Amino acid sequence: MANDKITLDPAAFAAAVLGGNAQHPDEANKLYIKRQLTLYLEAMLLAQDFNNLEESRFDMAKAQKRDDVLSKIIERRYH
C-alpha cells in the first residue's frame, strides 16, 4: 500500500468541509454565505493541491523503483 495513490474528489471534500460549518446564531445570512463560499473555494484548491502533490509523490516512487531495478541489472551485468 506504500505506493497506492490517494486522491481526493475536490467537490466532495469541499462539500464535507461546508457540512461542518454551521451558521452562527447572530451571523447575517450574507456574511454566512460569503464565509461558506470562501471555505468552499479554499477547500477545492486545497484538495487539488493535495492531488497534485500525491501525483508527484507517486511518480517519484515509480521512478525510484525503476532506478532500483536498473541498478540491479547493471550490477549483475558488469560485476
Q: Explain this structure to me?
A:
The protein has 79 residues and is mainly alpha-helical. Helices cover 76% and strands 0% of the residues. It is built from two helices and no strands. Helix 1 (10-19) packs across helix 2. The relative contact order is 0.15.
Question: What key phrases describe this protein's structure?
Answer:
0% strand, mainly alpha, 79 residues, single chain, rod-shaped
Write the layout of secondary structure elements.
Elements: H1 10-19, H2 29-78
Helix pairs in contact: 1-2
Order of helices and strands: HH
Ends apart, CA distance between termini: 33 Å
Helix content: over 70%
Biggest sheet statistics: none
Structural class by helix and strand composition: mainly alpha
Instruction: Outline the low-pLDDT stretches.
Output: none
Mean pLDDT: 81
List the total number of helices: 2
The gross shape turns out to be: rod-shaped
Output the radius of gyration.
22 Å
Assess the beta-strand content as a share of residues.
under 5%
